[in-house]
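Intended use. Records like the one below are meant for learning the mapping from a protein sequence to its folded structure. Do not use them to infer anything beyond what is encoded.
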Amino acid sequence: MNNKPILWIVIPCYNEEEVLPITSPIFLNKIKELISKDKIDKKSRILFVNDGSKDKTWNLICALSKQDEHFIGISQSRNRGHQNAVLAGLMESIDKCDITISIDCDGQDDINAMDDMVEEYLNGCEIVYGVRSDRKTDTWFKRTTAQGFYKILKFMGADVVYNHADYRLVSNRVIKHFADFKEVNLFLRGLFPLVGFKSTSVYYERSERIAGESHYPFRKMLALAFDGITSLSVKPITFIISSGFIFSVLGVVLLLLSLIFAIFTSIPSTICFLVGVLCFLSGVQLIAIGIVGVYIGKTYMETKARPRYIISEHTRGVDDND
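Structure written out for the chain above:
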């Protein structure tokens, strides 16, 4: 193993013109610090992935690449979402570096955790997960829903690292094997554990966003959670089958009871009760059909095999590691 690996820090950016001028020097100082400590090679770079931003983010990335050789950038042809932006950066790094560290642009993740990540790689780990030690900066609602989401994924059989998002170190060896995963519906934090190889975690405290607004409102977080569950587990379908069996048996029991009451007692039938039962069962059927429809839709998207990202522009020096 090379004692001084080449590191690429992969940073997805979407409408980050407010925060980029603040965090870019922080990333630059960190990579120079790691170089000065002989932890990484001087060919290491900071790769910004513009995810179809509508503001001046790409102009800022281009300006940064001209100011310092450590900054490079790629721009997607349109907005394709955070997960695809990270993927684009990882695929761009193949055979150009030894390790990548993906991190958000907003400065919330503790950049000093990179020191421990690189150290763990030098000790033989191929994947190092950045894991939040607590969620005290989150609101009660976000903390509760996030922790509940991880527990649901575990219950569904998905192999995920608790309280880990997309702050992680991955070796080039892992990325090459990860490229064989052809999913269109991406949930990276659930896919990397499937690749295997030796892994570990480093723990850090997450801060408040330095500037700008979060690009992950509740609606997008809910969509990501739903993608994670339906992309990594088929247990919802087994739940549908089990529920269908239970309600079928219940329906037979209710019919038998109704027949018994009609023959042997004078208890009148309750129309409202029957209508309620019918409505409840109809609702269960609609939910079941809807969930099955989600899986059919995902199968439909996978068979299309559309490109997961398209790079339209590069900054100068993206291929120059000499």
